[in-house]
Every structure is written in C-alpha cells, then in structure tokens.
C-alpha cells in the first residue's frame, strides 16, 4: 500500500539518529521552490500565511478557512511529502479544534501543532503572551486526539495525522510549567512536543532528554532574531531535537529580494533582469510540463502546438 504523508512523517520521526529539516513555506510557489530542493518535509508557517494571505501580522487574525486553504494547496503539490502545518490554537473550543483536525486530515496535512495561547494569540516571539489554563490547553489536545481517532476509525486506519503539542508557557510561566504542560499533553496523546522559545542548548538538552527517553520527538522552532537561542542544524541534532522548522526562511528571502527590485524600479525606472528569467521558468517550476502531458493524455488538443 502506498504510504500516506502522515505515515511517512511517522517513519521520519522514528529515525532516532537523524533530524527532520523543514523549510517554512507559505504558498504554492514557495512550496514548489522547497520541493525542487528535495526536502523530505515542509512546514507551513502561520505567520507567513497571515502575512502573505492577509497582509497582516501574526496576531490571531487568520481563521481556519484561510489556514486550511493554504495548507491544502501546499499539501496537494506533493502528496507524498509530509507537510507540518501551524494550526495555532485550533481556533476555538474542543469542537472547533476537532473540526480543524478533521479538515487538516482530509486535506492531506501530515502533522499540525496546537498551542496554549488565548484565541487572540500573537507570534510566539512577541512579548506579553496570554495563555489559557492548563486544563483548557489539554482539552484542545484531547479534542485533537479524539478527532484523529474518529477519522482513523472511519477510514479503516488510512487517515492519520501527527499531533504536535506546542507550549508558549516558558516566557511568562517558566520552565517547570512549560515542561508540565508538555508532559500532560503527551499523556493525553500528543506525538511530538514543541517548547516555544527554548533559551539555549542546555535547556534544549533537558527537554530532549526528558521526552526522547519516552520515545517522544522534540521540535525546534528556529526563528533568527526571535527568542529561540540560535543553533546550527548540527547543534540541534547533537542536542537531541528530532525536527527543526525554519518558519521565516522564505519570508525573509522574499522580503529582501522584493524590496530590492521594487525599490530599484521606483528609484531608477528599470530593473536589472533577475537570472534572465521569463515567466516560463516559473511555470516549469510549478509543473508546466506535467500539465501539458496530462492534458494530452486526457485527449485535450489545446496545447498541441506547444506553449
Ligand atoms: C512558528 C510560528 O507559529 C509560525 O507562524 O510560523 C511563529 C514563527 C514566527 O512568527 O516567525 C511562532 O513562533 O509563533
């Protein structure tokens, strides 16, 4: 039987000696660019979704329909490549979290993370985050686990998703509360833990040792310029992290490049050619040849003369 993306993600997570590297993507084009590079797994950033789809900051403004549309577009491009999606707070109470999980599973998302901020959340690297009580957080994780079980039962085990418990408690409540929340989340069925803003390698080591001994992989959120201590991939692997996501990777590159070329056009009235690129290069990156082949196979004649 072909492996689903979630099953593939579980396989990757089971490799104790390796780390899964996930570039943060936020739309079809950035996903295609990462896929072309041959990454094993992609990460859909919520901040990037908010910035690119809404043009607004990561302040709890994106809702399920927007996040889901983005995740399902990205997941559809390479169904065998796992996509981990940011699912923020799950967007409501237990019923809403369950709806989020079912929708992500149906869209082919391989893993998602749920956090313990209030619904009016903010990026984990901003100050003064407000958190829900631990029991409310656990009801979110429990709802996710129950919804997954329902979907597994309905599909004879075909449908699956990796549930990643994120806590933002470190910043305002301290390390022990953050650890307690993650331990409880695992006790109710979370598969992977994610402590936002790990302050350094030593802290990372304590988290990884505690969870890896229970067979639970730990995710590292690498946000240069944010509150997480910067670590190279080698260091993250050595500390014991099982997954590392780079949410801002494409965003910063795109911002830098777009600011440069638009500034150049505004100032000088012209733009140096970038890589001598015409539109066809981008269409090819995004499956032009496959589209033409498919159309022909189906009996279409529209592209017989070429494009
Ligand atoms: C991981 C994250 O939730 C995201 O939206 O990608 C953000 C990252 C960011 O804002 O760069 C977060 O850490 O809260």
TrEMBL record:
InterPro entries: ICL/PEPM (IPR039556), Isocitrate_lyase_ph_CS (IPR018523), Pyrv/PenolPyrv_kinase-like_dom (IPR015813), Pyrv_kinase-like_dom_sf (IPR040442). Keywords: Kinase, Pyruvate, Transferase. The keyword DNA repair does not apply. It holds the Pfam family PEP_mutase. GO terms for molecular function: kinase activity; methylisocitrate lyase activity. Transmembrane segments: none annotated. It catalyses: (2S,3R)-3-hydroxybutane-1,2,3-tricarboxylate = pyruvate + succinate. It comes from the Eukaryota. PANTHER family: PHOSPHOENOLPYRUVATE CARBOXYLASE, PHOSPHOENOLPYRUVATE CARBOXYLASE FAMILY PROTEIN. This is Pyruvate/Phosphoenolpyruvate kinase-like domain-containing protein. It comes from Bombardia bombarda. The lineage of its organism: Eukaryota, Fungi, Dikarya, Ascomycota, Pezizomycotina.
């Amino acid at each position: 039987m072909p492996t689903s993306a979630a099953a593939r993600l579980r396989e990757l997570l089971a490799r104790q000696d390796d780390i899964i590297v996930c570039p943060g993507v936020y739309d079809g084009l950035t996903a295609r660019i990462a896929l072309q590079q041959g990454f094993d797994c992609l990460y859909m950033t919520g901040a990037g979704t908010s910035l690119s789809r809404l043009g607004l900051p990561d302040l709890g403004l994106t809702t399920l329909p927007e996040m889901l549309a983005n995740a399902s577009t990205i997941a559809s491009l390479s169904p065998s490549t796992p996509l981990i999606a940011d699912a923020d707070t799950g967007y409501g109470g237990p019923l809403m979290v369950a709806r989020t999980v079912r929708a992500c599973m149906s869209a082919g998302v391989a893993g998602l993370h749920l956090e313990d901020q209030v619904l009016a959340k903010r990026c984990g690297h901003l100050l003064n985050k407000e958190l829900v009580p631990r029991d409310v957080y656990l009801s979110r994780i429990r709802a996710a686990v129950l919804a997954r079980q329902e979907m597994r039962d309905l599909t004879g085990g075909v449908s699956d998703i990796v549930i990643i418990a994120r806590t933002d408690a470190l910043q305002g409540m301290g390390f022990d509360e953050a650890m307690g929340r993650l331990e409880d989340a695992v006790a109710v069925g979370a598969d992977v833990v994610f402590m936002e803003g790990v302050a350094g390698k030593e802290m990372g080591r304590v988290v990884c040792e505690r969870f890896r001994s229970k067979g639970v992989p730990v995710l590292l959120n690498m946000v240069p310029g944010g509150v997480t201590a910067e670590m190279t991939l080698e260091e993250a692997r050595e500390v014991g992290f099982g997954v590392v996501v780079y949410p801002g990777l494409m965003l910063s590159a795109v911002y830098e490049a777009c600011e440069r070329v638009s500034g150049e056009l505004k100032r000088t009235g012209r733009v140096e050619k970038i890589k001598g690129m015409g539109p066809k290069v981008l269409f090819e990156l995004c499956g032009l040849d496959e589209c033409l082949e498919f159309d022909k196979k189906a009996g279409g004649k529209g592209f017989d003369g070429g494009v």
